[in-house]
Design a protein that fits this description.
425 residues, mainly alpha, 19 helices, 0% strand
């Protein structure tokens, strides 16, 4: 399996992601410069809820759907419409129940998560914006599974441009504050979520849903039986990725949370390439021709050799970039740069080892993946609990590198190599 065809697809998706990243980066910059430190801390907590609850509900099943649907398409040539429908119905039902419960006790839950009873409105706004985010992610999984990357890119652009336009207007009028930003995100997410859901489910009418599911109930059963551990893995992964924000809120100051949030936003922007890679590799590794372990290993080693050099521009930026970082974001966030440097190493490691998960998913070693994530969840919580009081945001960033890049990715690599040695024996 040559790397070049994969690289072409990744490059095409990445070009689309570059524009969305630039627009998203400009939006983040407007918020960093326009919001007060306290408002930006609230915004960091708000976006955590906006992505966490939908992520717990849908990340696992969406990513499992991409893998299963790509394999199903490869084998049968038919799109599993019944899974698309059940995915939406399941996520809406679960999210609705969770959101209703959290809304009813928003002040207490907000205080528990963020260490302040005033976090109640933050939680409520995050849940409302999360509903639209849920629709967006569920619909995007369909486009990814069917490798409709052109549509995926255009929809991504539309979402980023709309949000930038709205935030830009309020920035120009100097009326930016947390409540206004949160309400804008709620409206944009829900409006865009409904539109993209319609496009993703176009051609499926409400009348045919019951008969469609009944006719292909065996496909739905096969999906759940074959991907249950994988769904559990992504649920655990989504949870531990948010421990840093929650523990920073409880064990550190509002300013430290804002400082960490600025660095984390740029970290997320840098990881856009990882998103492009995952978008392309997830369905391709589910094809029949990629089930051969020898083909998988050749691809992984070729990938490692091709991406190791990325550390050079990252090191140059880390050594020389602080004056520009402070000039762009303001002196109040100068401390964010040291956190960003730690994150940049995590970006390099994540890009290098990005195919590893796809290899083990293709081998359907879901139980091992879940067990590794569960171990990492404990390590992540303990590490953050002990390091954040002493190192603040830098401690949270160090824990992220250790738990995600060393434990998870190191464990995946050792598993692949162990499989190789066993086969050779």
């Amino acid at each position: 399996m040559e790397l070049s065809p994969w690289a072409v697809d990744i490059f095409k998706v990445y070009l689309g992601d570059i524009l969305s990243t630039v627009i998203g980066g400009l939006t983040v910059w407007l918020l960093i410069r326009g919001l007060s430190v306290d408002d930006y801390a609230s915004y960091t907590a708000f976006t955590t809820i906006m992505t966490l609850v939908p992520g717990l509900v849908g990340n696992g099943i969406n990513l499992a759907l991409i893998r299963f649907s790509a394999e199903y398409l490869s084998k049968t040539g038919r799109k599993p419409f019944e899974l698309y429908v059940l995915n939406f119905l399941f996520q809406i039902a679960i999210y609705g129940a969770i959101a209703t419960l959290l809304f009813s006790f928003s002040s207490g839950v907000g205080g528990f998560l963020f260490g302040s009873l005033s976090s109640g409105p933050v939680l409520q706004y995050g849940l409302l914006a999360g509903l639209g985010y849920l629709f967006i992610q569920a619909s995007m999984s369909i486009f990814k599974a069917e490798e409709r990357f052109g549509v995926y890119i255009k929809l991504l652009w539309a979402n980023k441009i709309l949000l930038f336009f709205v935030i830009g207007i309020f920035s120009i009028t100097k009326s930016l504050h947390f409540t206004l930003v949160a309400k804008c995100l709620i409206l944009v997410n829900i409006a865009f979520g409904l539109v993209i859901s319609y496009l993703g489910m176009k051609g499926i009418t409400l009348k045919v849903i019951p008969s469609l599911i009944k006719k292909h109930v065996s496909t739905c059963r096969e999906f759940l039986l074959s991907t249950g551990w994988l769904i559990g893995y992504y649920l655990v992964l989504t949870l531990f990725q948010k421990f840093d924000i929650f523990l920073l809120s409880r064990l550190s100051s509002q300013k430290e949370l804002a400082v960490y949030g600025v660095a984390f936003q740029y970290y997320s922007i840098l990881l856009i390439l990882l998103g492009s890679i995952t978008t392309v590799l997830a369905p391709k590794f589910s094809r029949i021709e990629m089930q051969d372990p020898a083909v998988q290993r050749r691809f992984v080693f070729k990938w490692l050799k091709s991406t190791a050099w990325i550390i050079l521009p990252i090191l140059i930026a880390d050594l020389l970039g602080k004056p520009l970082f402070v000039r762009i974001n303001g002196a109040q966030y100068a401390k964010s740069f040291s956190i960003f440097v730690i994150f940049s190493i995590s970006v390099w490691l994540s890009l290098m080892f990005s195919p590893l998960m796809n290899v083990l998913v293709a081998r359907k070693e879901f139980r091992f993946i879940f067990s590794l994530a569960a171990l990492t969840l404990v390590i992540n919580f303990v590490g953050n609990f002990f390091l954040i009081p002493h190192l603040g945001g830098r401690g949270a960033a160090l824990v992220l590198i250790f738990s995600h890049n060393i434990i998870i990715q190191g464990g995946l690599f050792m598993r692949i190599m162990k499989g190789k040695s066993q086969q050779c024996a």
